[in-house]
């Protein structure tokens, strides 16, 4: 079914105590689209990511990936179903090298117990390593593949985590603040890399504070405020929506090119 959304949230609700941090949220992410998820601090963006990826269990509603319900699946089975994500706080393995961290993302491609350790063989000419090195260079990560990630600049480590998420060849890639800590040149390189990802059908859902990055990368935007959905529409029009402006932009004027930071 070509028009089936890649991701569908239907009345998704999550409560901590008596507080609904995700309050009956419903929206769709079209297949192949790049969609931003923004909102003020504390709006519930990362909570929603955690619900979709399986870190948290939903208290109500459904989450569907390519039309199949996944909200009751454990996280690993969601990854096997085609979902991959990065985290707001970097979660690399500090004792491993750059290429070893990237190759960890290939583990989900292993077909069985015998091949599970294949990406970790670290053979210098293995297909796993060559694929990881190609993705690393395409993302503009210009460091020694065998260097330890510990001590690398924050922006470089952020890009390594994004590439690691891509190595599982997901159908839905969820990125939690991928441009945080990047300088303008690195941000532009990351946006260009994400737009050039080669395999067909890759869908992106991106939480990001940098609105220049959002306008450059994402055609569609969803806005949350206090755990509620307040906007679901084109990125080019988000700054014109009265409820969005009241939620976190106040009376500030936002440049049409998205130059002001928000969300």
Core attributes:
single chain, 263 residues, alpha/beta, Rossmann fold, six-stranded mixed β-sheet, four-stranded antiparallel β-sheet, 8 helices, 23% strand, globular, disordered C terminus
Can you tell me about this structure?
The protein is α/β, with parallel strands linked by helices and 263 residues long. It has a domain at 7-94 and 168-262: Rossmann fold. It is built from 8 helices and 10 strands. The protein has helices at residues 45-53, 75-80, 98-103, 127-138, 154-166, 184-195, 211-217, 242-249, and strands spanning 7-16, 19-29, 34-38, 60-65, 68-69, 83-85, 172-176, 203-207, 220-225, 228-234. It has a 6-stranded mixed β-sheet, sandwiched between helices. Strands 2-1-4-5 form a 4-stranded antiparallel β-sheet, with helices on one face. A hairpin with a 2-residue loop joins strand 9 and strand 10. The longest helix has 13 residues, at 154-166. The protein is globular, with a radius of gyration of 18 Å. The protein starts with 6 loop residues before the first strand and ends in a 14-residue tail after the last helix. Mean pLDDT is 85; it is low at 251-263.
């Amino acid at each position: 079914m070509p028009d089936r959304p890649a991701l569908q949230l239907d009345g998704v609700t999550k409560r901590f105590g008596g507080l609904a941090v995700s309050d009956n949220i419903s929206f769709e992410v079209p297949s192949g689209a790049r969609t931003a998820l923004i909102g003020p601090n504390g709006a519930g963006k990362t909570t929603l990511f955690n619900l979709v990826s399986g870190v948290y269990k939903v208290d109500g509603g459904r989450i569907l990936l390519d039309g199949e319900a996944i909200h009751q699946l454990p996280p690993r089975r969601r990854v096997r179903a085609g979902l991959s994500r990065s985290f707001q706080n970097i979660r690399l393995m500090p004792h491993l090298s750059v290429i070893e961290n990237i190759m960890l993302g290939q583990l989900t491609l292993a077909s069985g117990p015998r091949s599970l350790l294949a990406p970790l063989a670290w053979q210098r000419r293995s297909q796993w390593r060559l694929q990881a090195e190609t993705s690393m260079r395409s993302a503009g990560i210009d460091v020694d593949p065998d260097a330890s990630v510990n001590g690398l600049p924050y922006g470089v480590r952020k890009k390594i985590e994004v590439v690691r998420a891509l190595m599982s060849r997901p159908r839905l890639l969820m990125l939690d603040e991928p441009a945080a800590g990047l300088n303008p040149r690195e941000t532009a390189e990351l946006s260009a890399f994400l737009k050039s990802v080669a395999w067909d059908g890759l869908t992106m859902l991106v939480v990001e504070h940098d609105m220049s990055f959002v306008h450059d990368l994402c055609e569609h935007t969803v806005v949350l405020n206090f755990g509620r959905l307040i906007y679901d529409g084109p990125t080019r029009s988000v700054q014109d929506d009265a409820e969005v402006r009241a939620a976190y932009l106040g009376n500030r004027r936002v440049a049409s090119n998205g130059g002001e930071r928000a969300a």
